[in-house]
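INFO batch 0412 | record 1 of 1 | parsing
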Amino acid sequence: MSLPKPQITSLSKTSLHSWNAILASYFKNKRFYDVLQLFKRMLTEKNLVDSFNLVFAVKACFRLSLFQRAKLFHSLAIKLRLEGDMYVAPALMNVYSELGSLDEARKVFEEIPQKNSVIWGVMMKGYLNFSKEFEVFELFSGMRDHGCELDPFVLEVLIQACGNVCAGKGGETFHGLCIKKNFIESNYFLQTSLVDMYMQCGFLDFALKLFEDIPHRDVVLWSTIIAGFARNGGALESISMFRQMLANSVTPNSVTFASIVLAFSSLGSLKQGRSVHGYMIRNGVELDVKNYTSFIDMYAKCGCIAAAYRVFRQMPEKNVFSWSAMINGFGMHGLSGEALKIFDEMRSLNQLPNSVTFVSVLSACSHSGRIEEAWSHFKSMSRDYGITPVEEHYACMVDLLGRAGKIDEALSFINNMPMEPGASSWGALLSACRIHKRLELAEEVAKKLLPLESDQSGVYVMLSNIYADVGMWEMVKKTREEMYEKGLRKGVGFTSVEVKKKLYLFSSKDRFSYKNTQIESLWNSLEKRMGELGYVPDLRFALHDVDDEVKQEVLYGHSEKLAIVFGLLNSGEGMPIRITKNIRVCVDCHTASKFISLITRRKIIMRDVKRFHHVQDGLCSCGDFW
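INFO prediction complete | emitting tokens
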């Protein structure tokens, strides 16, 4: 609708209803400056301002981010005794909270004597926007005490708050209320919020069941389920849902692309991730900060740190997450010097770091053994930026000290933490105990860690591996039996390799499948030449109580070696081999990769759960510090 600008001379001769209709049309057509211009003229006529047009003026301030103008309209509302109006008050609260002044929104809220569900809902939404979920729940309690009825909007906010703090049981309760009040069938926003909540809480089956029961799925709902699987380690499921979305003729948007790129990042699927980037550029899909950041993360996690850096430099604007992603990218590739330079540049441009940034910085220091610099940044968090270190920051420091062999210092650090040490800190120390063969301490650490991860097999697996390293096979057997008695099973380690836009997965269980194949033939040839150059299999990492010949066969069947050999057979001459391991690369496979790179003159880029290893000409970028 194209509306002409009204003749100002006719204001007084036209009814208030007519002018309000024009104002509403301007707003509907996103002509927010015209809304404010017309409202300014209407102020000259005392009888032409009411709650209806004042709401549109306030909303226009929000759309144009005019905070001071909104405050002037708030003063006008007080003067006209409209500040408690059931339409004006929510608009004022919304503009304050959305433009960064939650305190002002709360003041408006407190001045309203009779609060309806809309007022309560807008205030809850304000707190939700500031990640103050527990204040949301407190408001809900107050709303119930006042006997106010729940409406779909309030329930949507409460469900989102539950998702943000992983309060799955609370989310289920609110889901039940939605069903009881018959809100869910006709409310698409509620349906999407519920799917997202279940995904954030890790209830993937619940989320998928609810998703499948929704008959009409738009791009927002598809993006929610795709993102949910990608965030929860279900990269393959995420890609499957993306393909189903395309098969249903739903056009992806920038949010969908950011989510599917995350899935490709998890699998180390460079070609697929790059194809999404190319598609967005070719089709003129506007890249926002989130998309740029997702591509930085994808290229870094797929082994192309140079491409990640190029995307970073191309960004028209960067936020704290973009800087953090670039720092983290350099750190995981062992380029701690470059990571710290980016951090220095970030601060020189007055971009304040956040908690995530410091995790990236400390991790970068950990990967390269920069102890003094890590201590400096750890202390700087609270001293210079008012950021209180949390479990993840402490775990980074424990990991750094443990890798460097300062086991007793790491233990003392944990014992002096201001909060109860969590699984991350104890887990980092347990890993260090394996590296430095501190068996007795490992047993004590495992006792601390098991109650924290009672439903996880990882502690039992790590402890049994430590026993295996020193040949204590009876303790290996006992530890594994304890794990099985609790109904836990060791997760399958696998390695993926991308060849010609297809992703191939290998696990150690596959080794018998490749008997008498090209893979076995090439490995035998490589192993012979490796032996001539001095390679000796590290039988400690066979982790089985069998004779040495069988141990060598077990080592050959490690998924890293299978993936590398498959890559050599099926990629072009001179092309780098990129593999991704879902757990840490074993020491023997790390050593073997250096010999293979020297023999084949291929670059091998290995990513594991901790970092990248760029192996070329017999040397690794990690300098064997990992």
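INFO post-check: The CA atoms of residues 395 and 425 lie 4 Å apart.
INFO record closed
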